[in-house]
Amino acid sequence: DAPKVPDSRGDSDGPRRGSLCDRHCAAINNAQGDLGELGCHLHRPRVPPATSTPSCCQQHSEEVCESCVVKTTLTAENAVEANKLSNNYKFGFKKWKSHVTARPWEDRSEIVKELYSDLNIVRGSGGSTLTCGNVLYLLLFGWWLSLLYVLVAAVMFITIVGAPYGRLCWDLAGYFLWPFGKVIQKVEVPKSHQACEAGVGESSALLGGPTALRWRPRCWLGTGYWQRASTAAWLCLGYPALALAHGLVCVTAWLLIILIPVAKLSARATSRVLLLPPERVLIRPLRMTEVPLEGEVILCCYHAANPYYYKYAVDGINVFAVNLLPLVLVTLVLGYVDSPNHLTGSAVKFTLALLSIMPLSYYIGMAIASISAQSNFAVGAVVNATFGSITELTFYITALIKGSREGNRCYAEVVKSALTGTLVGCVLFVPGLCMVIGGIRHQEQRFNSRSAGVSSALLFLSVGGVFAPTLFSKVYGKLVCGECHNVTQNPLGHYLCHNCHFDLMDNNGTLYYSHVQPLVYTVSILLPAAYLIGLFFTLKTHTHIYDIHISDCHMPGHHHSAVVHWSRWRALVILLLSTLCMSACADLATEHISPILTNSTISQYFIGVTVLAMVPELPEIVNGIQFALQNNLSLSIEIGNCIAVQVCMLQIPILVLFTIFYPTNFTLVFSDLHVYASMFSVVLMNYIFMDGKCDYFQGTVLVMVYFILLAVYFFAPSPSGC
């Protein structure tokens, strides 16, 4: 959205900008620099080209400098957006793609401007109206909406006093059958016709050319519109049915998203056209080059569908999140009102609760980004640390509480599967999918290998710390099997055993309480400490690793103050309400997951690793894909790495701390499958990210490995005791 090379403000910026370019040029001259890691900020003085001194970057290949500028120089419209962009590159902060402020209208593309038009703009050439979207409108809405107008017209003709509205409905029936390429205008009546003299029945046409009688203003035009008998008949017999039909069309078209122009058409017809006096409404076809000269244009639609409406936003909220918000209300009402499951079963309620988590995750993410962008670093760090993992923790804690109350170990195993699934998905699937989709547009994508190396090191540390109690228990625990069979009929022969596990409670739990549990508490203290050290390293002492420059230059002639979508207080209220609704949806999900776990033929491992792990992360996946499409793969990778690190270094220690105050069945001892899948994923991810560049093939490898692991979980037997 922004120019790749922003204008400079001379030499007033100090040594920061010049030093980076000098470092880059020195690296080129010495042939020892890593062009993928150094930042080159190309700044052009505001002097005529003839007197400009070529910068050092300009003395080398344009290709090198252009790639450097794209990767390291970002331009923001205002200070709030600049703060948000800067937060995206801070370790531990939530990465957010969407704007938190209103973008200047003149900076938007023509495609986006068309999305927000009010369907009252007449273009000289609208192109052909015979399109797939228009035919879809005819099949879904046009035919029955036109038929309804014909029926209402018949009713109004029967009332006699409503005959003018009958003629209007008859014309609107033809319009709504195929409204494309037609225009509805509000006729302006001259003052000379407001008071008619006796015997004068008609006046000349307001627009050029002959006009039908009903469009010619009559003597009773000046009388009060709302005092007419025809208006009363219309508001009682005709308008309600048509308003209800247009409301149905509006809601349906809005939910389909690509048909939002139809929703605007119906809304404007209900609020404007149907409430005007019939003699003030003019409907006529619009020729390719014909433009109305007089009268206000109320409706002028050319196309019923627009595939770019996935970009549409309402007050900064994406249209998908807006459409999914009623789903949250339906889930809460249905879940708590119909607790005996008279209306729907547990499977439906579980699905609704899980789907409701997606829009709530979006609102929580946008609220965090809005507060962080409008606050200082300390406030942003506290908000991100407090609410960054609230979505996952809410579900995990409610599941552990329910499992503890019922004495069911399956809930703890499902939580472990969800933790492992989040780790594996964010290490393999999220960056792999971003590489594949970004590689379709860009042949090769580069990223900051230093910053990725920091995240990889933290991942190795966190995975080793999380699975240390598991490895300890396997070394010193006692192997206990459920049933064994002698396959050789020899007492000293081989035995085939099933449902084997390492028992930590042997000898009254001496091994667990004296050795494993202290190790778990030690790891739970060391991991958050390592996370804080990583924050201090990346945000304080080694900020140059990211080498990001947020330009304070704007496009020529565009100097706008920040108009935020959500103020800090509004974002805080939305954050708290979303968190509360998230807790309720998580409670409903855990309440109705029990029948699925007991009756489903699918392994509980698979349910936890896929559905429960990845659904809450869908907004993050979308953000990563958007960054990859803009050739900013560094942020796509950081999204997955940051979530994976937070799972091991924050979420798991918090769950361990929670079990101290509220005893549950959760122990930091994972199955072998979880250990092998997690370690293999981290090793593979670190191998792929070593050279600082990637393409769609490497992304395909990561995605394929992820699906192979899913197949393993799918065919794996359920945990023992479930």
Automatic annotation (TrEMBL):
Q: Give the UniProt record's GO annotations in the biological process aspect.
A: intracellular calcium ion homeostasis
Q: What is this protein called?
A: VNX1 protein
Q: Does the keyword Calcium apply?
A: yes
- Residue stretches making up the Inner membrane component domain: 132-182
> Topology with regard to the membrane?
Multi-pass membrane protein
Gene Ontology molecular function, alphabetical = calcium:proton antiporter activity
Per UniProt, the keywords (alphabetical) are: Antiport, Calcium, Calcium transport, Ion transport, Membrane, Phosphoprotein, Transmembrane, Transmembrane helix, Transport
Asked if Ion transport is a keyword of the record, the answer is yes
Query: The Sodium/calcium exchanger membrane region domain covers which part of the protein?
Result: 348-468, 571-713
